[in-house]
Amino acid sequence: MPTFEITAASAADIGLMADWAAAEGWNPGRTDGSAFFAADPHGFLIGRLDGEPVACVSVVRYGTDFGFLGFYITQPSLRGQGYGIQLWRAGMARLAGRNVGLDGVVAQQENYRKSGFRSAWNNIRYEGTPAADTPAPAGVTLVDARTLPFDQLAAYDRRFFPAPRDSFLATWIAAPQRTPLAAVRDGELQGLAVLRACREASRIGPVHADSPEVAGALVGALAATVPGEPVSIDVPDINKPAVHLMERLGLAPSFETARMYTGPLPETDQAGMYGVTSLELG
To answer: What pTM did the predictor assign?
Structure first.
């Protein structure tokens, strides 16, 4: 009988997981691996069949009571043979006792419901080349986020995420092939967004902002760093002004997931969430 073994993923395994995600059309960032590892070095599991990697999942712990599941992939030729569900159970055991979130593709959402997840909203990937000129509102300046005190960035990010994630955020904004911008008025943060190079369209996430005007300015400025190239943003459809902004910018829906949780909807600033950080890690 074949031997199926589940272990913590290595850095090389995470690179392989990104390749598998790309094959699924998820378009992961080219340098996301270091930030993923910083979030939770033991939060990535790989399933090997007779020593060969065939399945994976990320089950990252945040704080003391929140976790996020992603990268749930079994190689297509081995689906339906029980390897994926073994990995799923191992991952959920690692997150036992926590409110667990995930972004579920349409084909798997019913299975996730059977496992105790409930839909909170849909994340719609809007993609294209922004057409509108969106200057920053009066008094707001856009600056390289890396020039600001990190504690200020982390405190702002905490408004929009269910748990502290300082190690992840620090690596996310500093990793290669990305541009982090902050919107500042009178020394106070009004917005934060990060563009990262991907295999296809560059992805912008997070997009946190105190108004649609600030969000539009951040998206426009980041898109201008890759002139003529498409960008994509995973927008929570629960935030109607965010959806309207994407339409006004001329971006079109291209992909959809459902944000789901096992527990209550986390208390976050939903009105300021114009784009989630990552479908893989929340």
So the answer is: 0.95
Q: Which residues contact 149 (CB under 8 A, 6 or more apart)?
A: none
110, 138 in Cβ contact below 8 A? Answer: no
Residue 149 has pLDDT above 80, yes or no: yes
Alpha helices in the chain (DSSP H): 11-23, 33-39, 83-94, 109-114, 150-158, 166-174, 212-223, 240-248
CB-based contact 120:84 (threshold 8 Å)? no
Q: Return the pLDDT at 133.
A: 75
**Sign for the pseudo-dihedral over CA of 247, 252, 253, 255:** negative
Q: Give the separation between CA 130 and CA 233, rounded to whole angstroms.
A: 11
CA gyration radius, the chain = 18
Using an 8 Å Cβ cutoff, are 45 and 57 in contact? Answer: yes
How would residue 134 be classed by pLDDT, with cut points 50, 70 and 90? Answer: confident
- Residue 238 phi/psi, 5-degree rounding, is -70, -20
Residue type, 45: L
- What span, in angstroms and rounded, lies between the C-alpha atoms of 118 and 34? 30
